[in-house]
Amino acid sequence: MNRVLIVGGHGQLGFELQRSAPRDLDVVVVGRPEIDITDSESIERIVQQYQPGVIINAAAYTAVDKAESEEALAWLVNHKGAENLAAAAARSNSRLIHVSTDFVFEGDNCTPRQPNDAVLPRSVYGKSKLAGESAVLQQAQNALVVRTSWLYSSHGQNFVKTMLRLMGERDSLGIVVDQVGAPTWANMLAETLWGLVATDATGIYHCSNNGVASWYDFAVAIQEEAVSTGLLQRMIAVTPIKSEAYPLPAERPAYSVLDVSATEQLLGRQFPHWRESLRLMLLEIQ
Ligand SMILES: NC(=O)c1ccc[n+]([C@@H]2O[C@H](COP(=O)([O-])OP(=O)(O)OC[C@H]3O[C@@H](n4cnc5c(N)ncnc54)[C@H](OP(=O)(O)O)[C@@H]3O)[C@@H](O)[C@H]2O)c1
User: Fold this and answer.
1) How far apart (Å, rounded) are the C-alpha atoms in residues 25 and 138?
2) Which contiguous run of DSSP H or E holds residue 71?
3) Cys-Cys crosslink for 61: which of 77, 105, 162, 243, Cβ 3.0 to 4.6 Å?
4) Is 125 a catalytic site residue?
5) CA–CA separation, 119 vs 122, rounded Å?
6) Which amino acid residue places its CA nearest to atom 15 of ligand 1?
7) Contact (CB, 8 A) for 242 and 176
8) What are phi and psi of 21, to 5 degrees?
9) How many angstroms from the chain centroid is the CA of residue 161?
């Protein structure tokens, strides 16, 4: 089997890809400073060195709110960086698997979004990621773009870890209830990406845990599961609030649930419900 190169190896997804890598694959993991996807020469050097058959891009500018004031950097990494990787993949005849986001959708609907549904990102992050998707699909004929949503993992900073910290420190929390999505364990996404490596799928696919939640629902579940596994010692009051009561620089889609049925069909299995994956992640960090 060809070598698989994971780019962005030190992020949440990169970490999960590394630890769930199938033993029979030759997997190389690179992250900064070894590779900077905004620098074509550093990509070329790594691709020449490892000659991968498949490149998985888990590198991105992911600071959604900061991107509103660091627009040029977000575009450089998420658009130009993705384009650079796709060009290198095309030159070396490697297959690129590129990860993208539910934030490419406007979020004004309330049915799960299909891969080919109309996109209309509202934030700098979403716009820069959409431009990255387009560049990848244009540059590399056999590229695969996998959109995911609301990622969390035991590694790195994310909503679950923030909730655990705040629930340990405070007596009450107000959490946004009018944004709905599908929380996704990066480990589940990583296993799906390994499944997709073994297919010859091209184009856009979606991968998230099944089920739907508001951030409020997710927070309530995190607390319930964390108390039951002993990660938290007591329950605090968690109340639903509207987005306008918690203003953030970046506009988020109100509804960004991804339709994952095509990916499930391709892989011949259903993705677990988000609550089941949340429980496994919390058991892991217990
Ligand atoms: N997090 C979410 O909720 C979420 C939701 C939907 C989709 N996604 C997508 O899922 C993918 C993985 O996200 P994640 O949560 O694992 O992100 P993450 O934890 O922020 O990791 C991103 C990684 O990219 C690296 N990186 C940033 N700029 C780079 C550059 N110029 N060259 C090389 N590496 C660079 C970062 O390195 P440094 O640590 O050195 O900055 C970091 O290790 C991304 O494509 C993201 O857009 C994420």
Assistant:
1) 28
2) helix 71-75
3) 77
4) yes
5) 10
6) 12
7) yes
8) -60, 130
9) 16
pLDDT in tens, 37-61: 999 999 999 999 999 999 999 999 9
For atom 8 of ligand 1, which residue has the closest CA?
Answer: 101
Answer yes or no: is the C-beta of 150 below 6 A from any ligand 1 atom.
Answer: yes
Which residue type does 80 have? K
User: Is residue 1 pLDDT above 60, yes or no?
Assistant: no
Q: Is 209 in the pocket of ligand 1 (CB under 6 A)?
A: no
For 247, other C-beta atoms within 10 Å of its C-beta total 6
Ligand 1 centre distance from Cα of residue 46 (Å): 19
Helix H or strand E encompassing 264: helix 261-267
Q: What is the pLDDT of residue 223?
A: 98
Predicted local distance difference test score (pLDDT) of residue 177:
98
169-222, pLDDT tens digit by residue?
999 999 999 999 999 999 999 999 999 999 999 999 999 999 999 999 999 999
- pLDDT at position 109 is 86
Which residue type sits at 153?
Answer: S
8 alpha carbon to ligand 1 midpoint, in Å? 7
Residue 231: both structure tokens together: 């990660």
Amino acid found at 231: L
- Helix (H) / strand (E) containing 258: none
31 in ligand 1 pocket by Cβ < 6 Å? Answer: yes
Residue 234 is encoded by which pair of tokens?
């007591």
Looking at residue 80, the DSSP 8-state letter turns out to be I
Query: Measuring from atom 24 of ligand 1, which residue has the nearest CA?
Result: 59
